[in-house]
Amino acid sequence: MEELDRYRWSGHAVLMGQEDLPGQNTEEVLSYFGRRVKVSRRHYREFIMEGISRGRRDELTGGGLRRVRKLTGLEEMEEFDERILGSGEFVKRLRREKVLSDGISARMPIKDLVERVARVFGTEVEDIKRRKRSRRVVDARSVISYFAVREMGRNGAELGRILNMSRSGVSIAADRGEALVRDNPLLRSIGEDKSTI
Questions:
Q1: Which residues of 6-44 are buried (b: 16+ CB within 10 A; e: fewer)?
Q2: Nearest alpha carbon to residue 180 among 128, 135, 142
Q3: Which position among 14, 58, 84, 128 has the lowest Cβ density within 10 Å, counted as fewest Cβ atoms?
Q4: Which of 162, 109, 107 shows the shortest CA–CA distance to 131?
Q5: Residues 6+ apart with CB under 8 A from 26
Q6: Cα–Cα dist 145/156, whole Å
Q7: CATH superfamily to which 110-190 belongs
Q8: Domain limits of the chain?
Q9: According to the model, what pLDDT value does residue 77 have?
């Protein structure tokens, strides 16, 4: 817990008063745990420790009903999005709402995305998966990471297994890919015409 309290890449460290992150609403979060900052931090920390002691709970991670189906054995297929915890109907409703419709894109299979990006960059899919270090391959992996994680809501760990990358490597690549896509209309077009699974 002491390491987590000081871990600079986590909102937890901000809540514990060890780091500063403009935009993080520390006061609101801590208000759920007490009226005075010192007391609410202590209660918040106890809450986190209790959660850690329960271990990983798949039903509380992204993917909504897709993960619940795995746990319960439900067979019917419903819509899902890695970023959303909720039923298929809830995911559909979010997609219909104007405010969220742009942020939750249709889902293209990762295989199709990798093939499309490989064509645009003039490289082979196997080179992308083998981590060949040419500039074209590095850029292609970055663009794939951006579209898969940021636009399509895919899980970074899942994509990392496909591309032979760590989860943090996927995150770094997605940042780089975002800059590449933003500055290049051809690359932006890769994400258009996404087909649903």
A1: eeeeeebbbbbeebeeeeeebeeebeebeeeeeebbeeb
A2: 142
A3: 58
A4: 162
A5: 14, 15
A6: 8
A7: DnaA protein, C-terminal DNA-binding domain (1.10.1750.10)
A8: 2-53, 58-101, 110-190
A9: 52
